[in-house]
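Regression check, iron/sulfur cluster case 85:
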Amino acid sequence: MGCLLNREIDLDRFRCRGCGACVEVCPDAFCMDEDGEKAKVIDSAKAPDEAVQLAVAMCPTQCIELHKREERGGRDLCSRMEKKG
Ligand code: SF4
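Current build output:
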């Protein structure tokens, strides 16, 4: 869970098909865009970790990824590894 304390959420809008599942389970982090066709990230810091991870798990196109924000400015993919371990 530690890597989510300082996280970034990446949402690949090209792959998003606008089902709205992420908005439904985690409205603190996601909303639909002005056209209502694609989701976008509002604020990655406010949302509970469990809700963000649920949104990642429920996305049918797997276009949401969580990244750890590194102090040096780099980042590592962590969400998929956490689910396995
Ligand atoms: S769950 Fe995935 S496909 Fe559905 S709106 Fe959110 S990002 Fe787009």
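Comparison notes: The chain has one domain: 2-84. The pocket of iron/sulfur cluster is lined by residues 11, 16-22, 39, 59-61, 63-64 (CB under 6 Å). No diff flagged against the previous build.
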